[in-house]
Amino acid sequence: MESFVIKTPSSSANIGPGFDVIGLALTIYLELHVTIDRSKGSSEHPLNCRVTYEGEGEADISLDPQSNLLTRVALYVLRCHDQRAFPVETHVHIKNPIPLGRGLGSSGAAVVAGVMLGKEVGRLHHLDNDRLFDYCLMIERHPDNVGAALFGGFVGTYLKPLTAADVARTEIPLSEVLPAPAGGVDTGKKPPEPPMGIGHHIKFPWAKEIKAVAIIPDFVVPTHEARAVLPEKYTRPDVTFNLQRIALLPVALGQSPPDPELIHLAMQDRIHQPYRQTLIPGLTEVVESMSPKTQAGFLGVCLSGAGPTILALATDHFEEIANKIIDTLRRCNEKKDLRCEWKVLVPAEGTHVIR
Ligand SMILES: Nc1ncnc2c1ncn2[C@@H]1O[C@H](COP(=O)(O)OP(=O)(O)OP(=O)(O)O)[C@@H](O)[C@H]1O
Ligand SMILES: N[C@@H](CCO)C(=O)O
């Protein structure tokens, strides 16, 4: 019997001005506990895989390996390597403490863990993390969450310009990359393989004094809806505003001791947060009311990913900061008893396999 655990961190994307570029891996981990009994002759489970699940969204996540996002992603990697199913007999137990659709990269973590699952069960040892990143980008098309979840820490991610033929390959509809149900009618057709070297990342330093306070409201904002409210075009002053801040952000967050005024300025944004205010009542009020001048320990604040989680960076006074943000969210929300959880997190290790 073979067994191993895949651990993948949650993540916060954007950190203010870095829309679709910057990601921060955080210390809430998705875990896959995998066992494979290759001695069994056959399996009663579809695709030779039994899926069990505990944690966030337990009632909603499909346990059918043909429909579950994680196993479909693993199967995509396997099928690109002429393996049509999981090895007999695979059991994947998913432990997921990352809240779904809240801006903490649950889908990015699922995609990264799924790609790693495909590599491990398929014994595809030649696939290094840079190549796995290409596979992730065929599924989640913005690199910030998957980059942070795969490589860990505080990262800048970017895509290389692709040839026309490669663009055509990455623009293949997701339904062809990840046919659902994955085991439907198996035509034996190989799915489109990712072009080589689509995605890249660079690691930024992170000052040890800085902690991330995640304030997690009890409602879902699906990423596709939060992307649909963004405009197609921006004005030159808004683009310049963000460029000026993104040039500061990685330096400001790497400096020890941190400079609160510089961080506060570097976390401002005009590309996504103002438009998402409609989906997250109170976001603008939180961003405009919090300042290092009036709140001890506070450095800066932003929307985490596509929201609704709010991410405050701070050196101390975490509870006071979280409570102020929760009060503002409640004041601006129709639901005055809006429930919010909060957690103090730090940069996390990237995806790894424990044997
Ligand atoms: N462990 C998992 N297993 C299966 N499906 C998952 C898992 N985690 C996330 N998903 C799918 O991803 C969806 C959430 O993705 P979405 O991109 O909307 O939000 P998010 O990734 O949590 O937030 P953000 O992208 O803003 O950080 C869930 O509704 C579910 O369909
Ligand atoms: N950069 C992405 C992250 C969410 O997945 C967005 O803000 O839409």
Automatic annotation (TrEMBL):
<dbReference type="GO" id="GO:0016126">
    <property type="term" value="P:sterol biosynthetic process"/>
</dbReference>
<protein>
    <recommendedName>
        <fullName>Homoserine kinase</fullName>
        <ecNumber>2.7.1.39</ecNumber>
    </recommendedName>
</protein>
<keyword id="KW-0067">ATP-binding</keyword>
<keyword id="KW-0418">Kinase</keyword>
<dbReference type="InterPro" id="IPR006204">
    <property type="entry name" value="GHMP_kinase_N_dom"/>
</dbReference>
<dbReference type="InterPro" id="IPR013750">
    <property type="entry name" value="GHMP_kinase_C_dom"/>
</dbReference>
<keyword id="KW-0028">Amino-acid biosynthesis</keyword>
<comment type="function">
    <text>Commits homoserine to the threonine biosynthesis pathway by catalyzing its O-phosphorylation.</text>
</comment>
<dbReference type="InterPro" id="IPR036554">
    <property type="entry name" value="GHMP_kinase_C_sf"/>
</dbReference>
<dbReference type="InterPro" id="IPR014721">
    <property type="entry name" value="Ribsml_uS5_D2-typ_fold_subgr"/>
</dbReference>
<dbReference type="GO" id="GO:0005524">
    <property type="term" value="F:ATP binding"/>
</dbReference>
<dbReference type="GO" id="GO:0009088">
    <property type="term" value="P:threonine biosynthetic process"/>
</dbReference>
<keyword id="KW-1207">Sterol metabolism</keyword>
<keyword id="KW-0547">Nucleotide-binding</keyword>
<keyword id="KW-0444">Lipid biosynthesis</keyword>
<dbReference type="InterPro" id="IPR006203">
    <property type="entry name" value="GHMP_knse_ATP-bd_CS"/>
</dbReference>
<dbReference type="InterPro" id="IPR020568">
    <property type="entry name" value="Ribosomal_Su5_D2-typ_SF"/>
</dbReference>
<dbReference type="Pfam" id="PF08544">
    <property type="entry name" value="GHMP_kinases_C"/>
</dbReference>
<dbReference type="InterPro" id="IPR000870">
    <property type="entry name" value="Homoserine_kinase"/>
</dbReference>
<keyword id="KW-0443">Lipid metabolism</keyword>
<comment type="pathway">
    <text>Amino-acid biosynthesis; L-threonine biosynthesis; L-threonine from L-aspartate: step 4/5.</text>
</comment>
<keyword id="KW-0791">Threonine biosynthesis</keyword>
<dbReference type="Pfam" id="PF00288">
    <property type="entry name" value="GHMP_kinases_N"/>
</dbReference>
<keyword id="KW-0753">Steroid metabolism</keyword>
<dbReference type="GO" id="GO:0004413">
    <property type="term" value="F:homoserine kinase activity"/>
</dbReference>
<keyword id="KW-0752">Steroid biosynthesis</keyword>
<feature type="domain" description="GHMP kinase C-terminal">
    <location>
        <begin position="262"/>
        <end position="325"/>
    </location>
</feature>
<keyword id="KW-0808">Transferase</keyword>
<feature type="domain" description="GHMP kinase N-terminal">
    <location>
        <begin position="68"/>
        <end position="153"/>
    </location>
</feature>
<keyword id="KW-0756">Sterol biosynthesis</keyword>
<comment type="similarity">
    <text>Belongs to the GHMP kinase family. Homoserine kinase subfamily.</text>
</comment>
